[in-house]
Write a structure and sequence with these properties.
Layout lengths: L17 H12 L4 H8 L3 H8 L7 H11 L3 H8 L16 H25 L2 E16 L5 E13 L4
Antiparallel strand pairs: 1-2
Length: 162
Amino acid sequence: MAARVATLDSSLVDRLPAYSKALFDAKASQKLSFEAIAKVLGRGEVAVAAIFYGQAEASPEDIEKLSDLLGVPKATLEASMGGFPDRGRAGPMPPVEPLIYRLYEVVQNYGYAFKAIMNEKFGDGIMSAIAFSSKVEKEVDGDGVTWVNITLRGKWLPYSRF
């Protein structure tokens, strides 16, 4: 199968920071995957994708490396990526994109089960989405069936007694 790269869905452009389109256009023109960009930045591919969607903060080093790799002027990126991310606004709610909807469906169907098990293992608290990392891996089983493995790694934050 030929390597394909994720591009920006035109229906999201108005919901994303102005720099998102420039980053995605440069990524597509160079046929770079998020994995390839992540290796250059020294970050995880999910974190890099989140930067492109305006859902994660880019460090000055990230901006410099993105500029060098993608050929987008550093001054342009610095001017537009210097603020704080406005998380949670990238797509409509409920989501309409099937894959994203399925991720919500997993939480809807298994969320209370996850919560119960986490509470039994860790006590009363929540999993941080700030002290957090994630990765996506491809697995092919012995029968040749392809599976996706999504790892969510969040710091456990116990509730305080007050």
